[in-house]
């Protein structure tokens, strides 16, 4: 693919992904790096509309395969309309969740199966995979408590699943960590925000150095 770099963050609810990725994006920009922050599901208008449908708390009757297909559809549009063009322009794309979330949430935690969910997503992403994924590890109970404690954080349909579901999410991510040790790097997100942010930035900077990515 193009000359840019594609980095994703993943992890259970309330791990601090959005908060930290936005800070890291703005700090890297200040240092002169060509960075964009984006998120899934969403990032562009069509995918944001699909997000509203998937995460709407009143859609309790949604079938798990419908859910998986909607995430994949949102991903496809986001990829072709934003992620690929930005990578081709030489940008560092920092994306809040991507394909791993589907494999874990729909494939493992919902029980559709990791392989079938990977297959529909393979169709959606045409082999475009992240160069680096930072996995924020946290016990689901702690992450969910953070969300409940902070009123400004959106509580969505998936946040409302029982703790058992969120334990499976964490288990699923651990399986992916073992499967892709080169791409997915783990950090302990149950620490003060400043520490987690510092480690995230270091992982990203180390990777940029490894790829000889320089500020122009
Ligand atoms: N290290 C931390 N310690 C304590 N609170 C934190 C920490 N990181 C983030 N928070 C707070 O926890 C809440 C959830 O954070 P955030 O929305 O960034 O998590 P997230 O991983 O993106 O969650 P989700 O996947 O559910 O969107 C926010 O109110 C945020 O301020
Ligand atoms: C991309 C993606 C996301 N999810 C879930 C994970 C979260 O519960 C929500 C997204 O909300 P966030 O506050 O932006 O993290 O959707 C999923 O189940 N499958 C996916 O592919």
Characteristic terms for this protein:
single chain; 216 residues; alpha/beta; Rossmann fold; five-stranded parallel sheet; 8 helices; 55% helix; 12% strand; binds adenosine-5'-triphosphate; binds ligand LXEULUCI; EC 2.7.4.9; nucleotide-binding; Thymidylate_kinase; kinase; dTMP kinase activity
Q: Could you characterize the architecture of this molecule?
A:
The chain is α/β, with parallel strands linked by helices and 216 residues long. The protein has one domain (5-210): P-loop containing nucleotide triphosphate hydrolases (Rossmann fold). Helix content is 55%, strand content 12%. The chain has helices spanning 17-30, 45-55, 64-88, 99-109, 114-125, 140-149, 163-179, 193-210, and strands spanning 5-10, 35-39, 92-96, 132-137, 184-188. The protein has a five-stranded parallel β-sheet with strand order 2-3-1-4-5, with helices on both faces. Helix 4 (99-109) packs antiparallel against helix 5. The longest helix is centred in the middle third of the chain and has 25 residues, at 64-88. The chain is globular and about 50 Å long. The mean pLDDT is 95. The protein binds adenosine-5'-triphosphate and ligand LXEULUCI.
């Amino acid at each position: 693919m193009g000359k840019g770099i594609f980095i994703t963050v993943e992890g259970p609810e309330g791990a601090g992904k959005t908060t930290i990725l936005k800070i890291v994006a703005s700090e890297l920009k200040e240092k002169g790096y060509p960075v964009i922050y984006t998120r899934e599901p969403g990032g562009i208008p069509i995918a944001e509309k699909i997000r509203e449908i998937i995460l709407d708390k009143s859609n309790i009757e949604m079938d798990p395969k419908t859910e998986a297909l909607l995430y994949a559809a949102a991903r496809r549009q986001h990829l072709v309309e934003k992620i690929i063009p930005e990578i081709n322009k030489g940008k560092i794309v920092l994306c809040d969740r991507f394909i791993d979330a589907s494999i874990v949430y729909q494939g493992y935690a919902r029980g559709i199966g990791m392989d079938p969910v990977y297959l529909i997503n393979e169709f959606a992403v045409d082999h475009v995979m992240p160069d680096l994924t930072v996995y924020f590890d946290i016990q689901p109970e702690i992450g969910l408590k953070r969300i409940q404690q902070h009123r400004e954080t959106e509580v969505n349909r998936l946040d409302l699943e029982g703790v058992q579901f969120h334990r499976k999410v964490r288990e699923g991510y651990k399986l992916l960590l073992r499967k892709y040790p080169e791409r997915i790097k783990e950090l302990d997100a149950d620490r003060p925000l400043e520490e987690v942010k510092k480690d995230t930035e270091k992982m990203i900077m180390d990777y940029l150095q490894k790829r000889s990515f320089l500020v122009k």
